[in-house]
Design a protein that fits this description.
This protein is mainly α. It has a domain of 54 residues. It has 4 helices and no strands. Helix 1 packs across helix 3. The longest helix is centred in the middle third of the chain and has 14 residues.
C-alpha cells in the first residue's frame, strides 16, 4: 500500500473522478489503495452506492463536460462575415 491511508466515501469518488482518464492501477494507487485494485473497486462501488449512483467502470465518472475539456471543443463560426 502507499503511504496515505485509503480514501473512502465522497473523497474516494472525487479522487477517482479526477484520475478517471488513467489506468485503474494508477487510480487505485492515487486513491491510497496501492496495487490492491480489487479493494479499490469494491470501496468505490460501495461509496457510489452510498450516495445513490450506479458506476460500472471508472470511466462512468467522467462527465461529458470533462470529455469536452480534455478533447477540445468545437469551433463554431459563420461561413462568412455577412452570413450569420
Amino acid at each position: 500500500m502507499s503511504d496515505i491511508s485509503p480514501l473512502e466515501g465522497i473523497e474516494l469518488i472525487d479522487c477517482a473522478k479526477a484520475n478517471a482518464d488513467n489506468d485503474v492501477v494508477i487510480v487505485a494507487e492515487r486513491c491510497g489503495y496501492g496495487q490492491d485494485v480489487t479493494a479499490f473497486q469494491t470501496a468505490l462501488q460501495q461509496a457510489c452506492t452510498d450516495i445513490g449512483i450506479n458506476v460500472e467502470a471508472i470511466a462512468d465518472l467522467i462527465t461529458p463536460q470533462q470529455r469536452v475539456m480534455t478533447q477540445g471543443g468545437l469551433s463554431i463560426s459563420p461561413d462568412t462575415a455577412s452570413n450569420l
